[in-house]
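User: Quick one: structure for sequence A, then sequence B.

Assistant: Sequence A:
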Amino acid sequence: MKHQKLYAALTIVITLVVTAFFLKEIRHNARMETDLDEYMPKTHPAFLYSDQAEEWFNIKDGILIALENKNGIYNPQTLQKIKDISKALQDMPQFEDNDVTSLYTADNITGSEYGLEVNSFYKRVPKSEEKLEELRVNVRGNDMAYGRVVSEDETVALVVAGMTDSLFTDTFYQEILSFANEYEGDGDKIYVAGRPIVEGTMGKLGPKDMKKMVPIVILVITLVLFLLLRSTRATITTLFTVFISTIWAFGLMAALGVPIFAVSTMIPVMLIAIGVAYGIYFYNHLKQYYRDKPETNSWNAVKHVLKVLWKPLMMAAFTTMIGFVSLITSQVFPIKYFGLFTAFGISIAFALTLIFIPATIVLFGYKARHGKINEDDKGYTKINHFTDRMLSNKKVIYITVAVLIVVSIFGTSKVWINSSFLSNFEKDSEIVLTDKFVNSKFGGTSTLNVVLESEESGVFKQPKTLELIDKMQAETVQLAKVGNSFSLADYLKRMNKVMNADDDAYYRIPESNEMVAQYLLLYEMSGDPENLAKVVNYDYNRTNITFQLKGDDSRTINEALTVIQKYEDQFSEQGIEMNYAGSGYKALVFTGLILDGQIKSIILSLLIVLALLSVMFRSFKAGLIGSLPIIITALISFGVMGLFNIPLSTTTALLSSIAIGIGIDYAIHFMQHYRTNIANMEHRHDAIHFTMKQTGKAILYNAIVVIAGFMVLLFSVFPPNRTLGALVSLNMFTSLAGTLTVMMILVYGAKLFMKKKLKK
C-alpha cells in the first residue's frame, strides 16, 4: 500500500506541474480574435478573389460616425465638428486621406465655363444664413452626396473611414469610441457603427461573458454534484478534474498560437458540464462497491471500479470526442478549433477520471455514505414499475416517436441560416440600435461588391455597358434592404448633368464613347484620380460596383444577389465576367460553409458512432439500436429550430455534434451493463430490470448535471449562446428519454446479446 500511495502522490504532482505550465501559457500567449475575416478559410476561392478585389479597388470595411442634430446639420457648430472629425481621422495612422469620406471631404462635381470642377463642398465652415443655404442647395442637388453623407431629412451627417482590419485592435476600438464621443453635446448626438465596431464589441464582451459564466456554472455544478454524490471530497475532486482539463485545453491553444474566438468562450461550460459526468459514474460505482464490501481498502476498491468502468467510460469519452472532432470538417475556423480543443479537453477529463481521481482516493481515502435500505428498495420498486409500463405500452411509445419524427422533419425543412454577426447581440443593445439608426438614415452599414471583368481594354467606357450597369443598380436598389449603390456610372451621370447646365434630363449615361472619354479626361484633370481607382482600373476593363445593404444577414444578401445575377448573362454576352467581393459576400459564403460543415459533421459522426457501437457490441443491430436515440434527438433539435424560427449560425451549428457526442454516452452505458447482466442471468426480464436499476440512476444523474451545466448558458450576454444552452438541454432530455424508453424497449424486444435461448 505504501508504494501505491507513492505512485498516487507522484501522479498528483505531475498533474499539477503540467497544469502550472499551461496556466503560464494562458497568461502570456492567450489572445482574443475579433477580426471576422479570421473566421474564414484563406484558401477558399471566393475569399481569395475577394481579397484580390479589395486590393484592386481599396475596398475596406468602414467605421461609420454619424452626427445627429434634430434641428438640422446646417449650422456652423455641427459643420465644424464634421470638419474636425474628418481631419482628425485623416491624421490617424490607421487611415489614409482618401479613406475618409464626409461632407467635408466628398467630391462636389460641378460644371463651369472651363469644363468640370471638382472641389469639396466646403473648406471654411459657412457662417451666414446665405452661405449655409447655398451649401444645403448644393448637397440636395448632388446625388453622390445627398442620402450618402447627409441624410435626406438633413438631420444626420455621416463620416465614413475605411481601414485595414489588421490595424484594428482592441485598444484602437476603445480609442475611436472615446474620440467620437468627445464631439457629442450642444445638440449633437454621436453614433458609431460599422463592422470594425462589431468586431471590437465582440472582443470586449467575449472575455467578460466567460468571466461571468464560469463562476455561475461552477456554482451550479457544485451544488448539483454535492446533492448527487453526498460527499464534499468527491465533489471537489470531480470539479478539480474538469478545471484542469479546461486549463489544459486553453493552455494548448495558447501554446500553439491558436486564438480564442467568441464561440471558444463556451469551451469551459462544455467541459465542466460533460467532464463531471465521468466523475459521477466513477463515484457511483465506488459507492456501490463499498456498499457490498464496506471493509475493503481504497486500493482494492479503485482497482475494482477501474476494471468495471474503464471500457464503457472509454467508449463514452471516445464517442463524445468523435462528435466534437467531426467539426474539423468545417472550413469555419472557430467551429473547427472549438471541436478540436473541446475534444482534447474531454480526453483529459476522461484520463484524469481514471488516473487523478483514483490517486486522490488511494492517498486520502474515501468515506462512502449510504442511504437506508428501505429507501433503496422503494426506489427500485419505482424503477421496476416504470420499466414494466414502458414494455407493456410499447405501441404507444412507437406511435409517439413516429409523430415526433414527422413533425421534426417538417420543422427541419424550415431551418434557415443566419450569417449576421449583429445577431450575436441583444436586439436592444447599443450596437444593434446604433446600426438600425444609421441604416434608417443612410444606405446601409454592410456592403456587397460586384466586380465586372473583361479582356477588352476600355469596355467600361462604352455607353451600352455603362447603361447595363446603371440598369442593374436601379433595379437592385428598389429592394427594401438595399440602400444605395455606387459605380463609375454614377460619376458619369453626375458629370453629364453638370455639363448640361444641371438639367435633370441629362442625369443619364452619355450617349457616345467620345463623350464618356472626354468626361473622364476632364475629371482626371480636375479631380483626384485615386477616387476613380475605387470604381475602375486604369485600362477600364475591370470595375467595382458597391451596394450598401441594411443588414448583414444571408437573406438580405441573397435578395440582392437574386436581382444582380439576372444580369449575369447580359454581361456575359458582352464578354464580361461577374464576380463578387466585400464583407457582405464573404458573410454569404461563410453561411454556405456553416451548412456544408454541419451536414458533413453529422454524417461523419453518425457513421463513426454506428461503426464503433457495432464493433464494440459485435452486432450491427446493436449499433443501429444504440444510435437510434441520438438520431431522433438530432431530428427533434432541428425540428424545434425550424418550428421556432431559430437560425443555424456559427454557434447553433455546434448543436448536432454536442447532441451526438454526449447523447451516445447513455446508450453505451446502458447496453454495456445489459450485455453483462444478460450473460449472468437466466431471464432477460430480470436482466432489463437490473440494468435499469444499475444504470438508469447513473444516466439520470448524468443528464441532470449536463442539463444544469448547459442551462447556465441562459445567463450569457450573447443570444446565440442562450439558444444553444436551451437546445442542448432539450437534447439531453430527449437523449435520456430515448435511451430509457425506445432504446430499452428495442434492446429487450430484439433479444440482443442472447447466446442461448432464455425465458421471457
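Sequence B:
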Amino acid sequence: MHEKGRRNNRGNFHRHSGGYHNLPRPPFDIYMVEDYFPKVSSPKEIDSALTQAILKRNSDLTPSPEEQTNLVNLVSKTQMVLENLALCPGTFDACLIEEVRCIGSFKKGTMLAGRNLADLVVILKTLPVLEAIKSLGVKVVDELMKMESGMVFRSEVVDGGFDIISQMNGAAVRCLIATIPPNMRKIDPSIHLSIKILQRHMAAIRHVRWFEESANLTTVKVLIRVLRDVCNRFEGLSALSPWMIDVLAHYSVTFRNPQQLLPLNSAFKRVLQLLAGGVFLPGSTGIPDPCENGNPLHAGLTLVQQDAICMTAQTLLRILCYGEGYKVILGLEPDVYGITVNMSVWDSVVVAPSNAAFELPSKEDETETEMTEVQAENKPKSASPTPT
C-alpha cells in the first residue's frame, strides 16, 4: 500500500482520497539528455545541406525590399493618424482612442512574402460599438487621403476591426480593436465586439512584449518563418497557430540542458521530434504558455487536431531521415506524392504515412450509445430481498 501523495514504482500515479490519478508526462527529448546518447558519427554533410536548404527557403519566404518599404510607409502613416486622433479627436466623436500598439509578424520580423499585411491594436477608452469601429475606419481613410493627395485608400470592415488598404501597391494595415479593462463588464454582444475577440487582441500585445524580451533571436525568427510555411502547406499541421509556432520555435532553439543555443538545422529537427513524440497530445506536460500563467500551450486544440499534428510530424520526421526528403518538406521541390497522405519512396525506402489514433464517433454510434443509456435508466430495478 502506498502512502498518500507518494509515487508508485512506475512513477506516474499519485494516490489521493479519490483514488489514483495519472500525471502528465513530458515527451522524450534527446536534446535534454544528450550526455546519455552520444552520437556515433557526426553527419556534418547532411547537417550542412539541411542548414543551407533552410536558409534558402527563408530567403524565398522573406518579403522583398519593395514590399517591406510599402508596408512600413503605410503602417507609419496609419499609426500617425490614429495617434493624432487619440491626442486631438476634433469633431470625431464616434469613439475615443487610448493608445495604438503594433503587433503580429510585422512587429516581430517574421512576415511571409506575399502577405503584405501588418497588424495594429487600437485600444479604445470608449466601448467597442460596431458602428463606431466602422466610422473610425472611414475617418482614418479620410485623414490618409489628406496626407497623401495622390494616393487612394479604402477601408474594409473585418472580424474584430477594419483594414486600411492602399489601392496603389496592395499594402494593408489591419486595425484590431480592444478596450480598457473597466469596459469589459459593460460589453453587450448585440452592439459591441465580443469579449472573446477583445481578450484575443489584448493577448496579442502580451505576445509581442514577450517575443521582444525573450525570443528576439535571428535563429528563432528564421525558424518561425520556415515553420509557418510548412504548416501552411501540410494540412495536418494547420491547427498550429502563429503563437504556438513562435513559442515552439523559441523552445526548440533555447531550451536544453546545457544552456547553449541549438543550430538552425538541429532546431528544425527538434520541432518535428517534439511534435512526433506527442508534446501536444493528451497526457503530455506540453510546453507552458509564457503569457497565460504557464497553462499548456496546446490546451485549445481538439483531440482530432492534436492527433493530426502528431501523425503528420511523425511522417515528416521519417522522410527527413532519408535522402533529400527535406527539400519537399521545406517546399524547395514539389510534393508529387502527397507525402502526408500517400506512400513515398526515398533512397529505396518506402515511407507510409502514420494512421490516425483518434476518430470522432459517428452519429450512429452516438445514437446507439444514447439509446442504450436510456434503456438502462428506464429498466426497472429488482426489489431487494426481504430479510427473513
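Confidence is low (pLDDT under 50) at residues 1-21, 381-388. Residues 65-214 form a domain with the Beta Polymerase; domain 2 fold (CATH 3.30.460.10).

User: Thanks, that's what I needed.
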